[in-house]
Amino acid sequence: MTVQPIRLFGDPVLRTPAVEVVDFDKELQNLVKDLWDTMESQSGAGLAAPQLGVGLRVFTYHCDGAAGHLVNPTWVATDEETQNGEEGCLSIPGLYWDCVRAKNVVARGWNMHGEPVQVEGSGLLARCLQHETDHLDGVLFLDRLDAETRKAAMREIRQADWFEGAVPTVKQNPHSLFGGAV
């Protein structure tokens, strides 16, 4: 398919919860291919449909030796262990901050053909699955940062070459770390 432009921080589509996919058709297959091609072109670990301006619950991932896509995903933490590590986002290019995530998760959803999929992840893959599912809920990883780090992150974003316009409000994430998007 084709590499698409990635929506950057400040675009309202990144803050809008995506709707569930109901038609597993050729358009969905093309979207998954566009997500894949765009993610790979940027050497990303994952990419969600809202980052391409499409408000559907689908994302691709390619990290820690695992690769694929999930449609209408949910995830749950398999224990209460957390990880704190560097995280970035293709919609906030070139900037990284430490972010706390569940260390071990199981994500469930469907593939582009409507077949059930389950992905078990720990470490970087778990971080990626949570990050991309957050995108589908209109949540950015900035929302998960502690207040001091979030303030510093906003300063860096305002100084970034790619940033234009008024700074949107960064909100505190309403979702529990261990509840996932179930």
TrEMBL record:
<dbReference type="InterPro" id="IPR036821">
    <property type="entry name" value="Peptide_deformylase_sf"/>
</dbReference>
<comment type="function">
    <text>Removes the formyl group from the N-terminal Met of newly synthesized proteins. Requires at least a dipeptide for an efficient rate of reaction. N-terminal L-methionine is a prerequisite for activity but the enzyme has broad specificity at other positions.</text>
</comment>
<dbReference type="InterPro" id="IPR023635">
    <property type="entry name" value="Peptide_deformylase"/>
</dbReference>
<dbReference type="GO" id="GO:0006412">
    <property type="term" value="P:translation"/>
</dbReference>
<keyword id="KW-0479">Metal-binding</keyword>
<feature type="binding site">
    <location>
        <position position="131"/>
    </location>
    <ligand>
        <name>Fe cation</name>
    </ligand>
</feature>
<dbReference type="Pfam" id="PF01327">
    <property type="entry name" value="Pep_deformylase"/>
</dbReference>
<feature type="binding site">
    <location>
        <position position="89"/>
    </location>
    <ligand>
        <name>Fe cation</name>
    </ligand>
</feature>
<protein>
    <recommendedName>
        <fullName>Peptide deformylase</fullName>
        <ecNumber>3.5.1.88</ecNumber>
    </recommendedName>
</protein>
<dbReference type="GO" id="GO:0042586">
    <property type="term" value="F:peptide deformylase activity"/>
</dbReference>
<keyword id="KW-0648">Protein biosynthesis</keyword>
<feature type="binding site">
    <location>
        <position position="135"/>
    </location>
    <ligand>
        <name>Fe cation</name>
    </ligand>
</feature>
<dbReference type="GO" id="GO:0046872">
    <property type="term" value="F:metal ion binding"/>
</dbReference>
<keyword id="KW-0378">Hydrolase</keyword>
<feature type="active site">
    <location>
        <position position="132"/>
    </location>
</feature>
<comment type="similarity">
    <text>Belongs to the polypeptide deformylase family.</text>
</comment>
<keyword id="KW-0408">Iron</keyword>
